[in-house]
Structure to design on (59 residues):
């Protein structure tokens, strides 16, 4: 599997985290979670994509 396909699979794996973004924004707006959770989201997405990229077999 080439690098481009592996990268695409890794990015697709972050979609569930991105779908949680509106919920996190709403919870932060009402004070249920701290705003720092939103600041951590880009870091989480990068780590998640890197993890999945490394786990997809290179074959």
């Amino acid at each position: 599997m080439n690098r481009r396909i592996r990268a695409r699979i890794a990015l697709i794996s972050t979609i569930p985290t991105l779908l949680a973004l509106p919920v996190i924004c709403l919870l932060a707006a009402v004070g249920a979670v701290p705003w720092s959770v939103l600041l951590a989201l880009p870091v989480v997405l990068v780590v998640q994509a890197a993890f999945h990229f490394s786990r997809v077999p290179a074959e």
In short: The chain has a mean pLDDT of 90. Residues 36-55 form the longest helix (20 residues). The CA atoms of residues 28 and 35 lie 6 Å apart. The radius of gyration is 14 Å.
